[in-house]
Amino acid sequence: MDVRFDDRVAIVTGAGAGLGRQHALLLASRGAKVVVNDPGGAVDGTGGANAVADAVVAEIRKAGGEAVASYASVAEEALAQSIIDTAVKAWGRLDILVCNAGVLRDKAFNNMTMEDYEFVNRVHHFGTVYCVKAAWPIMRKQSYGRIVVTTSGSGTVGNFGQANYGAAKMAVNGLINVLRHEGAKYNIRCNAISPSALTRMTESLLPPDIGPWMKPELVSPAVAWLCSEECDQNGEILAATAGGFARVQYFVTEGVQFDPAEPVSIEMVRDSLGRIRDLSTAKPYTGLMGNVVEKLREMGRIK
Ligand code: NAD
Questions:
Q1: 1 in a domain, yes or no?
Q2: In terms of domains, do 53 and 128 share one?
Q3: Which residues form ligand 1's pocket by a CB distance below 6 Å?
Q4: pLDDT score for 205
Q5: Does one domain contain both 154 and 289?
Q6: Belongs to which family (predicted)?
Q7: Interface ipTM
Q8: Which of 105, 226, 254, 286 is buried most deeply by CB count within 10 Å?
Q9: Which atom of ligand 1 is nearest to the CA of 43?
Q10: What is the pLDDT of residues 35-86, one digit of tens each?
């Protein structure tokens, strides 16, 4: 059976262009009622134009779907609340929240102003938190919600000139890692998409031979899947680019375990680096304590 979103209400932030536009078009084409949120500014977040969100709303309606516009910035708490209110006012509920809005203010860290650092974090990190915070009580109350945040390889592996952006993109991973636990019993799933696509944000950054293959619409099926009722993934990161899909996961190595009853020297750490860093022994990092409990038990230090 096809994946459908009939009777579901969705918000896609930053849906006026690039990836967000494709996410909104796909969700609407499968029956979702969509709030197309976008203040319509430039890549660095300056300026604004209502026509940007309006054009996507018109596109959805022309194709027979249902959509309303929201021109609010996610970067201010009261305005983010108004985006959620727009959905509830239009259709009386909210089932799906895709936090996609984004800006760039790239500079080498040495030259980056704290203003640019804060601004980028305000849009990506706080813009996500403000929307999730406003959606959360609604989703809890109805015991249903699908939340997708947008992370980036820039945070996971780092990218020169993007300290502000990379940090903000990792912050949203931390958010879903916690919310997956808190939302589980309310059937709220929180996952992340780590996209790579040719948009105005990346047009000057991508190699010319690969760029044309990285169509934003090739990312949206993964986002829509994570928004579906069928999806039981929770706290996962899916990477999507150019038709390729993969899971991003932290691993931890077997490492070494010294007896905590004895002192540990700097040299003991230095001399064990081979084992500490040996990725061939790595396993998915799934618990707060890693494998320390097992090891201390083996050593007889705990029962
Ligand atoms: P884009 O510039 O085409 O789209 C971003 C949209 O967000 C724009 O329409 C913009 O107006 C909107 N926006 C900006 N500030 C906003 C705010 N305060 N409130 C609401 N909307 C706002 O860029 P894109 O490539 O489509 O990026 C979409 C998301 O994907 C971003 O979060 C971006 O960081 C992330 N991302 C993109 C790539 C990529 O390769 N394109 C890679 C990793 C992550």
A1: no
A2: yes
A3: 13-14, 16-20, 37-41, 43, 45, 73-75, 100-103, 123, 127, 150, 152, 195-197, 199-202
A4: 87
A5: no
A6: Belongs to the short-chain dehydrogenases/reductases (SDR) family.
A7: 0.99
A8: 226
A9: 2
A10: 999 999 999 999 999 999 999 999 999 999 999 999 999 999 999 999 999 9
Q: How confident is the model at residue 291, as a pLDDT?
A: 82
CA of 116 to the centre of ligand 1 (A): 16
Domain that holds residue 293: 251-298
Q: Which atom of ligand 1 is nearest to the CA of 41?
A: 11
Asked if 283 and 148 sit in the same domain, the reply is no
Residue 234 within any structural domain of the chain: yes
Q: How many independent structural domains does the chain possess?
A: 2
23 is a domain residue: yes
Atom of ligand 1 minimally distant from the CA of 99: 32
Whether the pLDDT of residue 90 is over 90: the answer is yes
Write a three-state SS string for the chain: CCCCCCCCEEEEECCCCHHHHHHHHHHHHCCCEEEEECCCCCCCCCCCCHHHHHHHHHHHHHCCCEEEEECCCCCCHHHHHHHHHHHHHHHCCCCEEEECCCCCCCCCHHHCCHHHHHHHHHHHHHHHHHHHHHHHHHHHHHCCEEEEEECCHHHHCCCCCCHHHHHHHHHHHHHHHHHHHHHHHHCEEEEEEEEECCCCCCCCCCCCCCHHHCCHHHCHHHHHHHCCCCCCCCCCEEEEECCEEEEECCEECCCCCCCCCCCCCHHHHHHCHHHHCCHHHCEECCCCCCCHHHHHHHCCCCC
Judge if 215 and 241 occupy the same domain: yes
Pocket test for ligand 1, best of 201, 220, 238 (most atoms within 8 A of CB): 201
**Centroid of ligand 1 to alpha carbon of 95 (angstroms):** 22
Task: Report residue 300's pLDDT band, with 50, 70 and 90 as the boundaries.
Answer: very high
Protein residue with least CA distance to atom 18, ligand 1: 73
Taking the model in full, what pTM does it have? 0.97
Residue 2 included in any domain? no
Protein residue closest via CA to atom 29 of ligand 1? 100
In the chain, % of residues over pLDDT 70? 100
More confident residue, 127 or 289: 127
